[in-house]
């Protein structure tokens, strides 16, 4: 997604009926892109973010995804939420992308995390 794409599409308020329609379409296995196109006036990342905020999963990835619960500091979560909001992404999706990129680049994870580092709850 380019910044011109997100700035070209004005933000809209989610009405109750639109939230219900998006939830219904998500339950039918539609993608965020398909839902955004049907509802209009929004983007796929905004659809994903709204659904995530209400605990509604997109089902089109069934069988290809895994869930990992992470225990971490609330301040770290707040930072993730801020970056996700600025980039118009779902926080969980952003975290998964960051981890995927850190693991894909050979040796990056080892350079980022010292053996003595801890989460420090």
List keywords for this structure.
121 residues; mainly alpha; 2 domains; disordered N terminus
Quick structural gist:
With 121 residues, this protein is mainly alpha-helical. Helices cover 56% and strands 0% of the residues.
Structure in words:
The protein is mainly alpha-helical. It has 2 domains: 15-64; 66-115. It contains 7 helices and no strands. α2 (16-27) runs antiparallel to α3 (32-39) and α3 (32-39) packs across α4. The longest helix has 14 residues, at 91-104. The protein is elongated and about 50 Å long. It starts with a helix and ends in a 9-residue tail after the last helix. Residues 1-7 have low confidence and may be disordered.
Helices and strands in order, then pairings?
Layout: H1 3-8, H2 16-27, H3 32-39, H4 44-53, H5 74-86, H6 91-104, H7 108-112
């Amino acid at each position: 997604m380019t910044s011109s794409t997100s700035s070209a599409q004005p933000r809209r308020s989610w009405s109750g009926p639109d939230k219900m329609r998006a939830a219904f379409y998500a339950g039918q296995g539609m993608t965020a892109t398909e839902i955004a196109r049907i509802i209009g006036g929004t983007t796929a990342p905004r659809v994903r973010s709204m659904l995530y905020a209400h605990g509604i999963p997109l089902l089109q990835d069934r069988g290809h995804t895994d869930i990992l619960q992470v225990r971490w500091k609330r301040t770290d979560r707040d930072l993730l939420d801020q970056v996700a909001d600025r980039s118009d992404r779902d926080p969980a999706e952003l975290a998964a992308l960051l981890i995927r990129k850190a693991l894909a680049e050979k040796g990056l994870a080892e350079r980022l995390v010292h053996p003595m580092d801890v989460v420090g709850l």
